[in-house]
Amino acid sequence: MPTNVIFLSMSGKIFTGQLSDNFTLDELAKVVTDKLGKAENGGSFRYIVKGTEFSADDPNKFEEQKKLITSGVTVYVCQRMRGG
C-alpha cells in the first residue's frame, strides 16, 4: 500500500505525494523535484520529518531513518545552502 505524504517547502508551498512501500531516497527526491524543480544554485534539498533531518547524502543511513515517514506525515523540504 503506498504511503501518502504531505510536503511543505520553505516558500510555503504545500503538496502531497505518494511513495511506494519500499521507497528509496531517489524516489523521495523525485517526488520533490517533480513539484519544486531542482534546487537553486546547484544546491540540494534537505528533508526534515518529526524533528529529524534525513541523511540525503547517505542512502544507508536514510534506510534506517525512513521508518519515520508514514502515511499522513509532513515532510519539511528545505534548500541546502552552499558555502560557509
Task: Describe the protein.
With 84 residues, the chain is α+β, with helices and mostly antiparallel strands. It has one domain (3-80): Phosphatidylinositol 3-kinase Catalytic Subunit, Chain A, domain 1 (Ubiquitin-like (UB roll)). 23% of the residues lie in helices and 33% in strands. A 5-stranded mixed beta sheet has the order 2-1-5-3-4, with helices on one face. The radius of gyration is 12 Å and the shape is globular. The termini are far apart. The model has no long low-confidence stretch (mean pLDDT 89).
The CATH topology corresponds to: Ubiquitin-like (UB roll)
Instruction: Count every beta strand, where a strand is a DSSP E run of 2 or more residues.
Output: 5
Distance between the termini: 42 Å
Number of domains: 1
Question: Given the structure, what is the number of helices?
Answer: 2
SSE order, as H and E?
Answer: EEHEEHE
Q: Report the CATH architecture.
A: Roll
- CA gyration radius, whole angstroms: 12 Å
Q: Unreliable stretches, pLDDT < 50, 5 or more residues?
A: none
Helix and strand composition category: alpha+beta
CATH top level assignment: Alpha Beta
Largest sheet: 5 strands, mixed
* Fraction of residues in helix: 10-25%
